Amino acid sequence: MLPALKPVTEIKRHATEIIDQLRLDRVPVLITEHGKEAAVMLDVATYKGMLHRLELLEVIAKGEQAFTEEQAGAHADVKARMAKRWA
Questions:
Q1: Count of domains forming the chain
Q2: Strand, helix or coil for residue 34
Q3: Domain of residue 62, residue span
Q4: Which of 2, 63, 64, 66 could covalently link to 71 via disulfide, CB atoms 3.0 to 4.6 Å apart?
């Protein structure tokens, strides 16, 4: 999904309408300043989903590292810890 491009001046003038559109279609808005990329605006649900996926990826990376360093725990122990954390 390609973000919608909006200059910062348009964001200033039409913030409420842009936020309403974000909530409706969940398409990110790439904010430009002086013709250059400056920031990205996301709806809250998309942002929270991205944070959750990032947390999961970090846990997976730690698990892979522990496995390669032969520090992995027993399957039942790991399963119980994961169930407790992500329940």
A1: 2
A2: coil
A3: 46-86
A4: 66
Round to whole Å and give the CA distance between 61 and 51: 15
**In terms of domains, do 30 and 54 share one?**
no
| Spatial separation of the C-alpha atoms in residues 42 and 4, rounded to whole Å | 11
CA–CA separation, 39 and 31 (whole Å): 5
Q: Is the pTM of this model over 0.70?
A: no
Q: Are 27 and 3 in contact (CB under 8 A)?
A: yes
pLDDT tens digits, one per residue of 2-46: 788 999 999 999 999 999 999 999 999 999 999 999 999 999 999
Measure the CA–CA gap between 74 and 21, rounded to whole angstroms.
Answer: 48
Instruction: Give dist(CA 55, CA 65) in Å, integer.
Output: 15
